Amino acid sequence: MSTTVADIQLIEIPKIEDFRGNISVIEGTTIPFKCKRVYYLYDIPSGAKRGGHAHVEQHEVLIALSGSFEVIFKDGTNNRRILLNKPNEGCLIPHAIWRELENFSSGAVCLVFASGEFSEDDYIRDFQDYVITKENVKLSK
Predict the structure, then answer these.
(1) Which member of 22, 51, 52, 58 lies 3.0 to 4.6 Å from 101 by CB, making a disulfide possible if both were Cys?
(2) What is the Cα 96 distance to its own chain's centre?
(3) What domains sit in the chain, N to C, each tagged with a CATH number?
């Protein structure tokens, strides 16, 4: 679990521009892992927060398909905040990074591509447990 907030990357999703509207395509190596699950968040009430967890092994890419939202990342030492508001830009989150999503605009849609199918065992849902787990792994190396 030696990943840090510095490992988070913004990736460009190819965009084909046309006077009739734009198309973005995700295929091949656009996302640097084999996608095993796709889900999306929408109709988020004003002031609501999502996320509030880290994954032990799973990697994810978040995309603001519509509207905007902020993602707060924590690695136990450092924090980083990224505004997502472009449907042709994804945020690649490696495993073992805490994430919280907030400040959703009206009509925001967050699309998520995940490297694994849902498994509750892959989630760390308590931030103190997350910090302890990261620290224990650092000490064991």
Answers:
(1) 51
(2) 11
(3) 13-140 (2.60.120.10)
